[in-house]
Amino acid sequence: MGQRFSKTSCVHIRIRTHRLLIFIRPTAPSAPKLTKTQDFFIMNKPKYNPEMQLSENFRLKEFIESPTAERLGIDNRPDWEAVINLRNLCREVLQPLRDHEGKPIHINSGYRCPELNEAVHGVGDSQHLRGEAADIHLPDVETGRRWYKYIVDNLDFDQMLFEYRRTGVRWLHLSCRRDRTHNRHMAIPNFPAR
Ligand SMILES: [Zn+2]
């Protein structure tokens, strides 16, 4: 998977006998406006590191590792835009929830590249594609209700709903956008029955 911020074009120009190399670093057309901190984060990235700490208790690899990707040989490494979005999701929603609970929270699914999203039958415009969403494991129904209420009452989020598989597996889907003005606070109370 390409790394969006490091595309460099190279132009050769011959002036008399001297050869000049001019490097042009274009701005990605879809590059978002970043805050100073986010800009710093991009410019100073050492290299891609799955061990990277996104917040106190969450590491990048928890959001990119996928048994399906491994089985199908899909490269699920995110671009930096998605990493920054994941970090935002951790700081705004997952870490505050984890601090409130005082227990580890297990991520079922975080970032998905288009190939992986298709393999797990995710919706076409899924926020998982941009690193804006994560599915968290529900230990039991009561915990799910408690988390739901805490998030609705206290946190800034975009969308929250319970998702189900026919096999009975369920989880809580949470999303958050970096631009707070676009967070819809859309909570769907489709609680598990048991
Ligand atoms: Zn989801």
Describe what this molecule looks like in 3D.
The chain has helices at residues 36-43, 61-64, 67-72, 80-101, 114-119, 141-154; strands at residues 9-15, 18-24, 53-55, 58-59, 107-109, 133-137, 159-164, 170-175, 186-188. The model is unreliable at 1-11 (pLDDT under 50). It has a five-stranded mixed sheet with strand order 5-6-8-7-9. A two-stranded antiparallel ribbon has the order 1-2. It folds into two domains: 1-33, no CATH class; 46-192, 2-Layer Sandwich (Muramoyl-pentapeptide Carboxypeptidase, domain 2). The protein has 194 residues and is an alpha+beta fold. The radius of gyration is 20 Å and the shape is globular. It has six helices and nine strands. A hairpin with a 2-residue loop joins strand 3 (53-55) and strand 4. The longest helix is centred in the middle third of the chain and has 22 residues, at 80-101. Helix content is 31%, strand content 22%. Zinc ion (ZN) binds next to strand 6.
Descriptive tags:
194 residues, Muramoyl-pentapeptide Carboxypeptidase, domain 2, five-stranded mixed beta sheet, two-stranded antiparallel sheet, globular, disordered N terminus, binds zinc ion
